[in-house]
Amino acid sequence: MKNQDLPNRSAKGDQEAVSQINKSLKDFDDTVSIEIPQLSFFEKTIKLQREKNRKEWWKELLMFIGLAAIILWILLLSLFHQPEVFLIVQVLSVIFIGSYTVYVKRKVESSHE
Hints:
By secondary structure, this protein is mainly α.
């Protein structure tokens, strides 16, 4: 008889534990409130981010155009006033680009091994 009472007590204890856990979870849900932001908050955040991205894009574009103009001006100036300097710069740039490409390729291949 004692063996039959043991499962009932265990089941009763399990039921009490489950009901106590459920009560605790319900109390927790009642005390903690989660506020979901409104759609306008997300729209405002997206609008601000787009404006920020647009300003950065224009800044980078103007910087690129300015640097390109300076580089072209220097190259054209050296081409017309000192053709030897222009040729030396061209040869050195080709050598530099080739050696840098080989260096990066070897570095990438060694990192994949």
